Amino acid sequence: MNNNDKTLVKLDGLSKQYTRGKITVEVLDGLHLSVDRGDFLALMGPSGSGKSTLLNLIGGLDQPTSGSIEIAGQRVDNLSASELASWRATHIGFVFQFYNLLPVLTAHRNIELPLLLTHLSRKQRKQHVEAVLEIVGLADRAHHRPAELSGGEQQRVAIARAVVSDATLLVCDEPTGDLDRDTADEILELLGLLNRDHDKTVIMVTHDPKAAEHASHTLHLDKGTLVTGEELA
Amino acid sequence: MKYLILLWAGLARRKVRTTLTLLSVIVAFLLFGTLRSVVDAFNIGVEIAGADRLITSGKYSIIELLPISYLNRIESIEGVESITHQTWFGGTYKDPTNFFPRWPVDIDRHLTVFPELIVPPEVVQAFKRNRQAAIAGRDLAEQYGWKVGDRIPIIADIWPQARGGAWEFDLIGTFDTTLEGSPTLEFWMNYDYFDEARAFAQGLVGWFTVKVAKGTEAQDVARNIDAMFANSSNETKTSTEKQFTLSFAKQMGDIGLIMTGILAAVFFTIVLLTGNTMAQSIRERVPELAVLKTLGYTNGGVLALVIAESTLLTAVGGAIGLGLSTLLVTTMGDALASFVPGITNSVQNIALGFAVAVLLGLVVGFVPALRAMRLRIVDAMRG
Ligand SMILES: Nc1ncnc2c1ncn2[C@@H]1O[C@H](COP(=O)(O)OP(=O)(O)O)[C@@H](O)[C@H]1O
Ligand SMILES: [Mg+2]
Q1: Would you give the DSSP letter of residue A106?
Q2: How many other β-carbons are positioned within 10 Å of the β-carbon of residue B49?
Q3: Partners of A87 in the beta sheet?
Q4: In 3D, which of B150, B102, B110 has the Cα closest to residue B128?
Q5: Dihedral through CA A111, CA A116, CA A117, CA A120, nearest 10?
Q6: How far apart (Å, rounded) are the C-alpha atoms in residues B317 and A190?
Q7: Which fold has domain A39-63+88-232?
Q8: How many CA atoms lie within 13 A of B1 on its CB side?
Q9: pLDDT tens digit sequence for A48-69
Q10: What is the ipTM of this complex?
Q11: A19 alpha carbon to ligand 1 midpoint, in Å?
Q12: Furthest C-alpha separation in chain B
């Protein structure tokens, strides 16, 4: 590995344009970023500044117009769609503002979904699911369906689903955007716990300065490039 | 197998809609199984009629009677191996709904022309000894619970007795057939007794059934028979047994065509209905499907998932519908045995039906599955 072992995410000259008809929107413009293992990074910036776009690129949901993305020493910007899919399954956990749980399935079954893609036995899958249910504090809600859970509980299920296959990198796009203050704090504490005690590197997009306080540091996205809090001020 | 939970998650999401769609698939395959069984039953009649037999009837109508003296004359024609005659006896056994064909027969000739019908020699002997003897098909005897020695009364309609009153016959045995899937539902009595006892038309019969010698062209024999009686007072028309049965079936309308039409309409509707259900279901589940992709499910995997979902739906509906049709056909078969003998839901029918159900699922699932496959996570998440 020619990379520093400490670096998990390394973005170099990353650009992303969207073209709609004759109009080309430059969302990211030659962006550099390096995130160490064990970081809890908050990404802030005005609406439409490209936070989700950046997160989607890091998470392998989209491909850049130019520049490189290296995660854990592996280039992912040139992987095919199906290579990206299996890469995501093992390396990335996603948490979105909306939980998008399958309404028919219990919390347990929802969390099990990523494990169906692995070779784990039924019994091993059960053990993994029970372990993460414990971590997110929903051991007693395993057999409840999404409709029987509060928003905060549903988001915990979504977080459990994101970490059950033991991805190192957790990318969260406004994970508390749909929750009240207290519930949001609980979710942020859970993310902090995963970061501190379970070796998850977390990159979180948020609007909310109080949410950003839970992170180890904060970056602002402005006009397609990243600036630190001090530079902005 | 572990992915079944995902199929369930898709189908159970809207239970009412899925149930209604399932019901319509069930009804379609219930119709499929039942109608095809009926069509088959008619075709069996046509297929089991060997091409080596000809039927000589009156030229203008099958109800025209012919002199029995024609029998010897036809028999003398080259290429005629054997011949017998048949006459529609009609009548009523107890109740008009107890319908089964009754034939006054010349037993030796009958068994020669119809070698597929099996009667033990001692029964043939007993039949010849007793003028009022009758032989029933085994299935017929079972249907009415007749035993050898029973006296069977038949109320006359076409053929009253000269002395009046009901006909009475002594059941002296049963016959079987070597043909599979063709129930034995006929009732035979002595032609000699029938001819003497009937009130009128002595010496006249309904038609002749001619067995053509091997290596002879049936069409030539038919032409020679009709030529022999041309310009006589009783001209004849000779056709193959197959054509004869077909003309019977034709009188009931072109059943096969009607049924095919009905099925086509039903399936057209089903394709639209289930197709719409699947399309709607995928539209509603866009964010969920996108999440599956973020979790590492591939585009191909999501395609397979949606197709499997629609195929499961139609296969389960098809299986239930075909099962119900088998039940219905079995029940109906007993009731209709005399009109449409041998009506069963064949294994081929059920297999074909199931194949159609699976194909239906694949076709109907294809377009929504493509849509799900092409779904881009980034767009789906932006709402
Ligand atoms: N798929 C897309 N097609 C066209 N434009 C897009 C697409 N995704 C994002 N954009 C545009 O890129 C810009 C950044 O969007 P986004 O990353 O969602 O911002 P943020 O998450 O910071 O609010 C916006 O102007 C948005 O309209
Ligand atoms: Mg956003």
Answers
A1: -
A2: 17
A3: none
A4: B110
A5: 110
A6: 46
A7: Rossmann fold (3.40.50)
A8: 2
A9: 899 999 999 999 999 999 999 9
A10: 0.92
A11: 11
A12: 96
N residues, chain B: 383
Residues A61, B378: C-beta atoms closer than 8 Å: yes
Q: Which of residues 11-70 of A touch B (CB under 8 A)?
A: 52, 56, 59, 61-62
CA angle B221, B226, B227 (to 5 degrees): 95
Residue nearest to atom 5 of ligand 1 (CA): A18
Which two tokens mark B245? 């049965």
pLDDT in tens, B112-150: 999 999 999 999 999 999 999 999 999 999 999 999 999
**B289–A contact, CB cutoff 8 A:** no
Q: Would the pLDDT of B48 be above 50?
A: no
Residue A218 · residue A42 · CB < 8 Å: yes
**CA–CA gap between residue A106 and residue B194 (Å, rounded):** 79
Chain A contact for B300 (CB, 8 A cutoff): yes
Q: Does B308 touch chain A (CB under 8 A)?
A: no
Q: Which of B234, B193, B283, B221 is nearest to B63 (CA)?
A: B234
* Tokens found for residue A17: 């344009």
Residue at A182: amino acid letter: D
Q: Which two tokens stand for residue B364?
A: 């109907």
Q: What is the pTM of this model?
A: 0.72
